[in-house]
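Worked Example 4.2. Consider the chain below.
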Amino acid sequence: MIVSITIVKYRRLLIPFALFAMALHRIPLMLDKSCTFWKLMGSGKNGKFTLKPDWQMWVTLAEWKTREDFNRFHQNSLISSWWSSFSKEQWTILCEPLASHGKWSGKEPFKSTSIIKDSLVSEPIVVLTRATIRPAKVKSFWSNVGFVSAIMGKSKGYITSFSMGEAPFYLQATLSVWETMEDVINFAYKSPEHAEVIRKTRSENWYTEELFARFRLVDSYGSLNGKNPLAELQQIEGVI
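Applying the procedure from the previous section yields the following structure tokens:
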């Protein structure tokens, strides 16, 4: 199993094509039997965790049965042709599920097929968190997560992150990349600021649904804002 996350930046004049793609692209994804789960999402401005949307940047996340299935999609699909025609940039991350807890739209995607325990992985780790926020808790959520996002960017082992969502305000997700699993654990459980937010999510019951998943980084290619954000990772040198 392989998971692809492609972030596409459209030319400003072609933003209407980006909006139309949100409706059109779901059709080939639904019809492709090798694609077991998918989401089409927008993003915060410049991929940051903010209420201000970025109308040029859009995200396609998909789960494929095999790497070959993704390669076929990437080479031959309507979606790939669309991106080539209308986008300014594309950046794709490929990763292998290690562990996943929770649900997304009532489903449990990203089931691990790895024989390696995620705690033993010494390679770069991709983390995906997503949640459906209760309408009454939206204000509390947004008043807390901005500070945590800033703390994350200064944490040991942090490489990059990207904010995305199926809908503004209440359907939110964050993708982050870390040097090691130890760095992920230290931020998630040993950072006082993050630990306090986790406590609030439980005590104040912020979410109606949530998911936390970890992946082994397999590949990264393309560019975002002029560069591949993971190009300097020595662990995948020569692959990108």
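The mean pLDDT is 88. The chain has one domain: 2-236. Compare this with Example 4.1 before moving on.
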